């Protein structure tokens, strides 16, 4: 049923009977295919006798921290997003019994679409299509910030009070658990973030890792986002951190990003919006003040550097076989260097 190297796959001897008993609506599992180990949760596609396949997400073999890779949080927020303008996969089943496959896991529908990375499908290259997709991309998190999270059942999902107050210490604390090398500029960025922290507006839902790699665009016109994936880092707090995540990674013509080789350079495509244009559109749709976006951009790259260093540590200690994790050897220092440049006003 599974493909070679069975130790990397869920044990079908316990998984299939469990699903037959507790998730019969997905059909009987006929095949299991590993899609990717990801930079975080591992992802498998289950082919069943139902028309559509199902996605199984489970934490990696070695977890970075007690709070990382939380599929239960992902399940809860996906359920909460029902009947909202935010496109997302349907949450189908949550298993917290680790005796089934050795880890908790989430079942969800398979979202259809493509990642915005070359080569692009023909309809994405039509006049104005790329720009329209990117504006829809930013509008999705603007709509997300407006979701009534209390009415959606997310009371207690996060700790919105003092959210920004905790950020620098949280990520430095997580980094300390696996740090093995010096990261030039890290202390300077941390000090700048503490000194320039703005007041937060009303709390909202945060995706936590909103980028092209975690978004699928529709396979047919009109240009639009078809599904937002990977909600494991979601919480309730200052939703401008999602805007900072997008803009921090957004490169304009003539700029380079340490993630371009993997992330792609769609943001430099002719007609792509600038960071300033995206910020304005976000402000228009969300109704939020984006005047401190430089802080949120620097915070995003600082956080990403701290998290990615954990994946690099998993690589050098044998806990990950993902090729990208090896590249974090040089990507993480460049992320911190870019954050440092933003704090010095060297990037608009």
TrEMBL record:
InterPro entries xrefs: ACAD10-like, ACAD10_11_N, Aminoglycoside_PTrfase, Kinase-like_dom_sf, Prot_kinase_dom
GO molecular function: ATP binding; protein kinase activity
Keyword field contains Transferase: yes
Protein name in UniProt: Putative aminoglycoside phosphotransferase
Source organism (scientific name): Streptomyces violaceusniger
PANTHER family: HAD FAMILY PHOSPHATASE, HYDROLASE, PUTATIVE (AFU_ORTHOLOGUE AFUA_1G12880)-RELATED
Domain spans labelled Protein kinase: 29-348
PROSITE patterns referenced in this protein's UniProt entry, alphabetically: PROTEIN_KINASE_DOM
Keyword set, alphabetical order: Transferase
Origin: domain of life: Bacteria
Gene3D superfamilies hit by this protein: 3.90.1200.10, Phosphorylase Kinase, domain 1
A Pfam family this chain is assigned to: APH
